[in-house]
Design brief:
72% of the residues lie in helices and 0% in strands. With 607 residues, it is an all-alpha fold. Helix 15 packs antiparallel against helix 16. The radius of gyration is 27 Å and the shape is globular.
Length: 607
């Protein structure tokens, strides 16, 4: 009897294993659950471990008196030394302030614009809706450079004059040109499209009967705003904070260009001599990212549900701004979006034809002879000497080799992250009541919430050592890019798969159609627009990434690090040209995906 019972148990176990292995979604969740756990946890462990190491030739070797081993001297020196204020507390305060003000600016600017587009009769809504998202599509540092080109002056910032100083002799104060204010403004404008897309989607679908009923009851407009409108868009506001806060904390290019010391910029300056203490700064950035995720989860559990008794109204009554104001407000936003979306392209193009940075003499002399093409085509030996031996942009092998490398990394990340993300989204949608599926979904999303520079630092430590050295290889950039950008495709696929009725695939299962054929001939064709978007988002984001890759390769390896290289050399025409190349490539890619799929970031918001 005991042998029979043992045999039955083995048979049951074997049958369960066979059943599990025959279910593709279970296998996907098992495979990528393990993979995502390792890819998310291993870098964290590596960078935490690095904070306790004694690094040869650094300050912790001097303080500990040892050439190797383990010590807590990095923590004691960073938190308690005379340099604690400049190395930790001041950068941390600036970082938190930058993240908070960025969220406020993005939510106010993007939220107000979303309300005007969806709930009022403002003119030119379709054009404004399309142009408003440009700052996010462009590289993060674009507006920072434009800010410099507009407001810098030799008298205040000690740099080349910007347009205002050169043409109008207007010198803006230092707090306007450098520091927290311009950094928060630039990042707020960069991430405002997040708020617009998330809040605009809710505004468009929100039941207008709620506000109309309150108006009939003579409820004051302020009370309607605080008791009805804001509670309805609260989920979108929280989502915007979740996405923007962590991204702003890990931003390196904007504070770097605009002279603000943050945890990210301090990490770069400390990394060579204060390696262990720099790793502590990266850990702190990660902690903030995880804390924001935890707060979001708590808010989800305690969030109230707002429902209506009468159902959704079929037509939304738009607020009438009046014959004059509907044009005035539209013109105001046309001017604002010109400076955030169109002017950057014109500015970078112009910078490549100036004989010297800040020399706008052709504008007030009217003499086009004051422009030059030397930066594009090169010239005689004297010209090339001024260009530090660099060939013109069109013939510069450094730039075009970096461009090829950027395309290689971007396309590879898009294909791999898009495929993995789509499979994860599909598997989670089929097992959405499973705790394991929810765990896999969370682990896949975790790297996105961590600041990019901290993620890059963690993988630098993990893959740049005596045992594994992938530094300055496309392999490492692709690995890190895939892990960072999987959430784009997984969340996109999950949302689209949840809209797909299970009966469609069940009918194919009854006819014994294999899973691969079901995916290729049923699931993918039906959801091709969302799936293609899941591939394009990693591609476009990877093209303009700097913070994530900054520590993983040398300058000149890809375009974003090459731009940083030319900036340090003072060849601003070259860095402007690289900005222009990146912007044109990204806009062209966005145009192509829009024509192929009919999808765009702002689709479904503008009425």
């Amino acid at each position: 009897m005991e042998k029979t019972g043992t045999v039955n148990k083995k048979a049951v176990f074997i049958n369960r294993v066979k059943t599990f292995l025959s279910n593709p979604t279970k296998m996907i969740l098992l495979l990528f659950g393990i993979t995502c756990t390792i890819s998310a946890i291993a870098p964290i462990i590596a960078i935490v471990e690095d904070t306790f190491k004694v690094h040869l030739g650094t300050i912790d070797q001097y303080l500990s008196g040892r050439a190797s081993g383990w010590s807590v001297v990095n923590y004691t020196d960073l938190f308690t030394s005379k340099l604690a204020v400049s190395n930790l507390w001041e950068p941390m305060g600036n970082t938190i302030g930058l993240a908070v003000f960025t969220c406020v600016i993005a939510i106010l600017y993007g939220g107000i614009f979303a309300y005007l587009v969806t709930r009022t009769n403002m003119k030119y809504r379709k054009y404004l809706s399309a142009i408003f998202i440009f700052p996010y599509i462009m590289p993060q540092w674009t507006l920072a450079v434009v800010w410099q080109n507009l407001f810098n002056s030799n008298a205040v910032t000690g740099t080349a004059n910007g347009l205002l100083a050169s043409l109008l002799n207007v010198n803006m104060p230092n707090w306007w040109c450098r520091g927290l204010f311009p950094s928060a403004m630039v990042l707020g404008l960069h991430y405002a499209p997040f708020a617009y897309i998330l809040i605009g989607g809710i505004f468009k679908n929100m039941d207008a009967n709620l506000e109309e009923a309150a108006t009939i009851l003579n409820t004051p407009r302020r009370k309607i705003l605080w008791k009805i409108t804001i509670p309805m868009i609260r989920p979108a506001i929280l989502s915007t904070i979740l996405l923007v806060f962590g991204s702003a904390m890990g931003s390196y290019p904007v504070p770097h260009y605009l002279g603000l010391t943050t945890l990210a910029t301090k990490y770069i300056s400390l990394n060579s001599k204060y390696t262990g203490e720099a790793s502590i700064l990266a850990v702190l950035m990660m902690v903030f990212g995880v804390a924001i995720l935890a707060l979001n989860q708590i808010s989800l559990k305690s969030r109230k549900n707002y429902t209506t008794v009468t159902g959704k109204s079929g037509q939304i009554t738009k607020v009438d701004l009046g014959k004059v104001w509907k044009h005035v407000i539209a013109i105001l936003f046309i001017i604002l979006t010109f400076f955030t979306s169109i002017f950057p392209i014109l500015s970078f193009a112009l910078e490549t034809f100036l004989p010297n940075p800040g020399d706008y003499s052709f504008l007030y002399t009217g003499d086009l002879a004051n422009l030059t093409t030397k930066w594009w085509v090169g010239g005689n030996e004297q010209v090339e000497s001024a260009m530090y031996g660099q060939s013109g942009i069109l013939f510069n092998s450094t730039i075009w080799n970096a461009y090829k490398g950027t395309l290689l990394v971007s396309i590879s990340c898009a294909l791999i992250a898009g495929t993995i993300g789509t499979l994860i989204g599909y598997a989670v949608s089929k097992n959405r009541r499973s705790k394991w599926a929810n765990y896999v979904n969370s682990m896949a999303f975790l790297p996105y919430l961590m600041p990019s520079l901290a993620v890059g630092a963690a993988f630098f430590i993990l893959f740049s050592n005596d045992k594994i050295n992938l530094f300055n290889t496309y392999t490492l950039l692709i690995i890190v890019g895939v892990i960072k950008y999987i959430p784009f495709a997984s969340r996109n696929a999950l949302n689209s798969m949840l809209q797909l009725s299970g009966e469609i695939e069940e009918a194919a299962v009854i006819q014994n159609i294999p899973w691969i054929k079901r995916m290729l001939y049923i699931i993918i064709p039906i959801q091709k627009s969302s799936i293609i978007s899941g591939f394009m988002l990693p591609f476009m984001t990877c093209l303009r990434e700097l913070s994530l890759f900054l520590l993983l390769c040398t300058q000149g390896f890809i375009l974003s690090t090459t731009l940083d290289y030319f900036d340090e050399m003072g060849l601003y025409a070259f860095s402007s040209a690289i900005n222009l190349i990146l912007i044109v490539t990204i806009l062209f890619s966005n145009f192509v995906v829009n024509k192929l799929t009919g999808a765009s970031l702002d689709s479904g918001i503008e009425n």
